[in-house]
């Protein structure tokens, strides 16, 4: 019922910036809990940032560097990534869920709808 499409990934040098976008279908975007996860080769998928209404949450590894935001009119969530590091290299996924929400926001199983991912590569 909900489709998510990520874009904006690419290759950037350390210290550079990228902005990822995730366009979602549906007429109740403002009710969604939205999140970004990332997964590097050989590693588990890890939480990056989430937004629910006006509340935002960040992994410690990206606090102060990444910003999650949303444009309700465009049904789009963004991840602005600044001061990128090689360890940020991963496939980035957006995901969404509708009420009733689970008790947490940082686990993959907290979200029922997923995009296909977009590759972010940060060179040294």
Written overview of the protein:
The chain is mainly β. The chain is 0% helix and 49% strand. The protein has no helices and eleven strands. It has strands at 4-7, 10-13, 18-24, 33-39, 46-52, 55-58, 66-71, 76-81, 90-97, 113-114, 118-123. The strands form two sheets. Strands 2, 4, 5, 6, 9, 10 and 11 form a seven-stranded mixed sheet that branches. The protein has a four-stranded antiparallel sheet with strand order 1-3-8-7, with no helix packed on it.
Keywords, separated by commas or semicolons:
124 residues, mainly beta, seven-stranded mixed beta sheet, four-stranded antiparallel beta sheet, 11 strands, 0% helix, globular
N-to-C order of helices and strands: EEEEEEEEEEE
Q: Which ranges are low-confidence, i.e. pLDDT below 50, for 5 or more consecutive residues?
A: none
Strand percent estimate: over 45%
Q: Report, as a whole number of angstroms, the end-to-end distance.
A: 40 Å
The total strand number stands at 11
Q: What radius of gyration results from the CA coordinates?
A: 14 Å
The chain-level mean pLDDT equals 92
> What is the overall silhouette?
globular
Largest sheet: 7 strands, mixed
Decide which structural class fits the backbone: mainly beta
Q: Given the structure, what is the number of helices?
A: 0
Measured as a percent range, the helix fraction is: under 10%
